[in-house]
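Quick check before the chapter quiz. The format below is the same one you will see on the exam, so make sure you can read both the input and the output lines.
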Amino acid sequence: MIAAPASSAAWFQIVFFLLVLVALIRPVGLYMAAIYDGRATFLSKYECVIYRYCGINATQSMNSANYTKSVLAFSLTSIVVLFAILTGQSYPNVSFDLAFNAASSFVTNTNWQPNTPETTIATTSQMLGIAVQNFLSAAVGLAVMAAFIRGLSAEKTGTIGNFWVDLTRGVIYLLLPFSALFALFYVSQGIVQSFGETIPFQTLSDGTTHSLMTGPVASQIAIKQLGTNGGGYFAANAAHPFENPTPLSNFVQMLAIILIPASAPICFGKMTGQMRQAKTLLFTMFAIFLPLMLWLVYTEQQGNPILNTMGIDQILGNMEGKEVRFGATGSALWASLTTAAASGSTNTTLDSFMPLGSLVPLILIQFGEIIFGGAGSGLYGILVYVMLTVFIAGLMIGRTPEYLGKKIGVFEMKMASLIILIPVMTTLLCTAVSVVATAGHAQTVNIGAQSFTELLYAFSSASNNNGSALGGMGTNTPYFNLILGFCMLLGRFGIILPILAIAGSMSGKIAVPPSQGTLNTTSFLFAILLMGVIVLVGVLTYIPALTFGPMAEHFHLMAAR
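Here is the expected output.
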């Protein structure tokens, strides 16, 4: 039987999810703006206690240099502390290179996991190390976002806020309360929440006794999804029934993944007083995301063409590597969201997608953190492309490029070039090295185009701080732990440094009123131009590599029918 097209229930799931998301992003975005504008004050008593005991002068605004030093100092300390926790725990099977990889991963909001967490990370380490960094790494991204917004909107101040205040407010006003609400809901759905007890069970086949691991799963899943972290308590991630037991828990976790990144443009519009700019950013994000997501759903609903020619019933679509309780549609939607939002969580085996379907998560990662992106990082990522688009348009019409009334100069374009080129160069160079190095290609299970795709995906994911894995290869080796750890650090701080440099430069400029020759950056025409620049600059760089990977695999599959 030939595979049927997506059912009405599948389309209802997609449409209903998008409607709920659109309904939530405005109130959440306005609330985020209130947090970083200092208008949310209902926890001010506890906030002041934190500042007093930590010696923070909350009234002092920093220039970009001091803000950058604070970000780096805090992140370096976080890496050292997490590394110490992992190497000092009671579980002995965490090597130096694995601890370095994990510390780099969770501090950079990548959350790449080459290990099996339930057997290598103790419950205490999960709570004091992994879960804490899930909060802090997301809060750092949101703080940098707030600083960048202030840099664009401030006039002749030279300051972009206080990092320690932004960090604190992001945690106590946004991430903690939202995570508590989501965690309570997850517990109601059957997600476990304990202190690491084991559950004995007997197999039906031979009656032997085994143990199921538990732990503080619901609370960690709440912040891992909300903070676009992605690292699971279990190796199976959101495919594990203890992490994601029901279709409703699946729906709410998908919503948590995308909620903050999709609300960030509204926060930007409110903080700058330019809500029409926010609508342009949202339109661009959705206009790129929706066709890619729908294409992935379509390819997975069609099933495997080889099985079709054999007359095998694929009425449910391509179910290889998928959970029946989520189906092909739920798995494809999740994969699109988790790669668009720079979250590494997954409820399926991405390696089992059809070749042209696997293009979608790979392309969404290779866009960089701009199509929604991570917590905070998605907004400042797409704003860099906005500035690049304005600069290109200015060259085309012979006028000085401006954004929000501020002139964009050579320095800003140099920094924007670094932001765009660093993840691309890191991804392609490390993939090329791994293809020829025995320590690299020897770890792939498959051969040919699929093997190349697995390597390309791994370095794309690490360099763009996504954290998801295509699968099909073993990366818990000294070579991969070290090189991927380096990619994650460069992909995070190689972007944050020029972002804060642009923020400092723009904060010292005066905004001029729009004139007749000012480019309208809220028009439909500009949104189309922005999408063109994103596609041309963000993806075409990878086309040769994609040709050798998923595209070649597709033609091999067609030839085998």
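If your answer matched, good. The longest strand covers residues 198-202.
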